[in-house]
Design a protein that fits this description.
There is one protein chain. This protein is α/β, with parallel strands linked by helices and about 260 residues long. The protein folds into two domains: about 40 residues; about 210 residues, Leucine Aminopeptidase, subunit E, domain 1 (3-Layer(aba) Sandwich). It contains eight helices and ten strands. Strand 9, helix 6 and strand 10 form a beta-alpha-beta unit.
Amino acid sequence: MLLQSINVILPDVHFFQGWLTLVGMLLSAIVGGLAVSWPRPIMQEYNAPRTRIGIFKGDLLDQDDHLVIGTSDTFDTEPPTIIAEGSLQAQVLDRLFGRDVQELDRHLTDALSGKLSVGSITKPGKTVKYGIGAIASVKQAGRLIFFLAYTEFNNNNVASCTVDGLWKSLGALWEEVCNRGNGRTVCIPVIGGGQARLSNVLPAQDSIRFIVLSFILASRGKKICDELRIIVAPNDYKKLDRLEIQSFLASLRAS
């Protein structure tokens, strides 16, 4: 359209004609298309209060900030008889505590001291129940690991979780982060899969929305932290509808 207008206004000007112009136009179109379609981080800034949410592909245990690790309300720690060997909690024990179960148990006992138990259960392993939403905040390498109880074991150490229980646990988590996290970035995995057995109810895409909505609603009352990072395993990340998640994050900005 622009070139046609130039030809009408200045018919004697031929500078914008020929194959060089065509090549330039094609290159511009390619560069513009790449700029629009190139994958961008899924991130959203909020102003009331000032905070940020980002969804990243990666390994949660490679992060240097505060971590959230899901656990049972009995805070069992021993793999493989009670905690699945491939679970995130087993990886925490292996990679962050040198597979020293006794050391991790000491940290958890200290963090739970003063917290009221809600009962007990007869099963192998730990038997004292602290209830859904209980949190043990453990110091490790200059940051906190928030062990969040959102599952319960039965007498055979089979874990289960409900959507209501998960919502309650997240509410308790944001309160603990607000009180203990000093505003520092918090990294959380996609929760509800694995032993929690909620993956059919809350697949990764829905779990992310669930976490985000809980965080935003809690943040409306008071600032929780500077940034929440949801760390998604590579296999799950490639299945995400990233544009839809970005739109969802943007829709939660206060009007």
